[in-house]
Write a structure and sequence with these properties.
75% of the residues lie in helices and 0% in strands. The protein contains eleven helices and no strands. The longest helix has 25 residues. The two termini are 17 Å apart.
C-alpha cells in the first residue's frame, strides 16, 4: 500500500500523460495504466478493475473526437466487436494466478512497445476488404485477452488493422477507440458479476485521466505528432516489463 500513497502526486501526473498519449492515437491506455500501477507497487486486485474503468473513460473521449472528425466506419468495427464482447465478458469472469497474470501482461506490454516503436512492419498504403472469418477469430482472441487481464484490446487491434491494410491510420484510431470501449465495459461487467468492486484507492485517478483523455483526443484528431512522447511511453512500458519478469 505504501507505493499507492506516498508517491501519489507523481503517479497522478504520469497517469494523465499516459491518458493523453493513448487518447491521441485512439486508445484507452490500459496497458500504460497497468504498467504504472505495476511500477508503483499496486496489487493485481486493484490493477485490473482500475485499468478497465480508466479505459472506458479515455477510450470514450477518444472515440468522440475521432467520430466528430468523421473517421469512424461501422464496417470496420462490427466484425471484431460482435464476437469480442462476449469473449471479453468471459475473460473478465476469470481470475488467474499472479505468476501467469504477470507473464500474460508482460507479453502484451512487449507487443505495445513494438507498436509504439513501429517495429511491427510497414503500414499498407491501400485499404483492403476485411476478411470476415479472420476478423471474427481475431476479435474473439483479443476480446478474451482483454477481459482476462484488464485491457481494451486496441493496442493489439490497431497494428492488425494497419498491417493487414484494412484501414488507414485515422480509421484505425476511431475503430480501436470504440472497440476498446465496448470490450472494457464487457470485461468490467464480467469482473463485477464475480463479486469484484472498484477499489476506493483508484477513485482519484478518474479526474486526471479525464483531463488527459480530453486533451489527447482533441489534439490527436488534429494530426498532432507524438513520436517523441511515444518513445518515452515505450520506455515506461519497458521498465514495467522488466519489473514484471524479475519480481
Amino acid at each position: 500500500m505504501s507505493g499507492e500513497i506516498t508517491q501519489l502526486p507523481l503517479l497522478l501526473l504520469l497517469l494523465a500523460v499516459v491518458a493523453f498519449l493513448y487518447a491521441s492515437v485512439g486508445h484507452g491506455g490500459a496497458s500504460g495504466y497497468l504498467a504504472l500501477m505495476s511500477i508503483f507497487g499496486f496489487s493485481i486486485a486493484v490493477m485490473k478493475p482500475t485499468a478497465l474503468v480508466l479505459n472506458i473513460l479515455v477510450s470514450g473521449l477518444s472515440f468522440y473526437f475521432y467520430f466528430r472528425a468523421k473517421e469512424f466506419h461501422w464496417k470496420l468495427f462490427y466484425p471484431f466487436a460482435i464476437i469480442s464482447v462476449p469473449f471479453s465478458f468471459l475473460g473478465g469472469t476469470i481470475t488467474i494466478e499472479t505468476h501467469w497474470y504477470k507473464i500474460i501482461l508482460g507479453t502484451v506490454l512487449l507487443f505495445a512497445i513494438a507498436r509504439l516503436l513501429g517495429l511491427l512492419g510497414a503500414i499498407q498504403n491501400q485499404e483492403r476488404p476485411v476478411n470476415l472469418p479472420l476478423a471474427l477469430f481475431i476479435g474473439a482472441v483479443i476480446g478474451f485477452l482483454s477481459g482476462l487481464i484488464g485491457i481494451g484490446g486496441g493496442i493489439i487491434l490497431s497494428p492488425v488493422l494497419l498491417l493487414l491494410g484494412w484501414a488507414t491510420i485515422k480509421q484505425t484510431a476511431a475503430v480501436s477507440a470504440l472497440f476498446i470501449l465496448v470490450n472494457s465495459v464487457s470485461g468490467l461487467f464480467g469482473f463485477v458479476s464475480q463479486g469484484g468492486i472498484l477499489p476506493q484507492s483508484s477513485i482519484p485517478f478518474i479526474g486526471v485521466v479525464l483531463v488527459g483523455g480530453i486533451l489527447g483526443g482533441y489534439f490527436g484528431s488534429k494530426k498532432m505528432n507524438t513520436l517523441v512522447l511515444r518513445n518515452v511511453l515505450a520506455l515506461v512500458l519497458g521498465i514495467a516489463v522488466f519489473k514484471l519478469y524479475t519480481t
